[in-house]
Amino acid sequence: MRISCAGVDAFLLDMSGGAFRNDIQGRIWSLEKLLSDRSEIQTVILGANNLLVVFDCEKHDAATIRHMLHAAWEQTVSAQITPREHVIPVTYGGAGGEDLPFVAQTAGLSESEVVALHTGALYRVAMVGYSPGFGYLTGLPRQLSIARRASPRLVVEQKSVCLGGEFTAVTPSNGPSGWHILGKAHCSALFDATAEDPCLLRAGDIVRFASA
């Protein structure tokens, strides 16, 4: 684990060693919960094989916090999460999935083969970030792991099913994105600020896609 300063009151804990690893992410889920319960820690933000930890620098010495973080990571084991399962119907291609032909061409597959691969995989929510309710899903078949667009779109509609690099996702709201759009999801709102549980997806949840 590498620890870097992120200002005077935060550390970035980086456990990545190249490609994303689910076993490492499981340990990070445990560490997130452990640190969230400590009085000296103010905020813990989950990332992809990394964790941002904000502490009260007026009351606690940075060196002491750094030592505590090292010790906590060494004793952390992968979280035992009972995941919720979501099956999300998707209309692939057409106006709501304009990048399906490009993804197929880049992967050397037919459009139907891309859909079969995308719907045939089992995905896990690694973390929720970027925008409220945006779940980064691991488990994307290697054939579909394609670099993001060189020029992001300024607006991508909510509930767009997209992929970028080694992740796939469903956009929770309208906004810019450099990911490739495969289709349109038919599901509940991914983020509802008025709900008791505002995010449809949580870290550890299982997601499957089905062709609508």
Indicate the topology:
Blueprint: E1 2-5, E2 10-14, H1 22-36, E3 41-46, E4 50-55, H2 62-74, E5 85-92, H3 100-107, H4 111-120, E6 123-128, E7 135-138, E8 153-156, E9 160-164, E10 167-170, E11 175-177, E12 180-185, E13 206-211
Parallel strand pairs: 5-13
Antiparallel strand pairs: 1-2, 2-4, 3-4, 5-12, 6-7, 6-13, 8-11, 9-10, 9-12
Describe what this molecule looks like in 3D.
It contains four helices and 13 strands. With 212 residues, it is α+β, with helices and mostly antiparallel strands. The protein has two domains: 73 residues, Gyrase A, domain 2, CATH 3.30.1360; 127 residues, Cyclophilin, CATH 2.40.100.10. Strands 7-6-13-5-12-9-10 form a seven-stranded mixed beta sheet. Strands 1-2-4-3 form a four-stranded antiparallel beta sheet, covered by helices on one side.
Summary, kept brief:
With 212 residues, the chain is an alpha+beta fold.
| Percentage beta strand | 25-35%
CATH class of the largest domain: Mainly Beta
The total number of structural domains is 2
Mean pLDDT: 93
The major beta sheet can be summarized as: 7 strands, mixed
Class computed from helices, strands and strand pairing: alpha+beta
* Overall shape: elongated
Domain Carboxyltransferase: 1-201
GO molecular function: ATP binding; hydrolase activity
Protein name: Carboxyltransferase domain-containing protein
InterPro entries: CT_C_D, Cyclophilin-like_dom_sf, PxpB
Provide keyphrases for this structure.
Gyrase A, domain 2; Cyclophilin; four-stranded antiparallel beta sheet; 32% strand; elongated
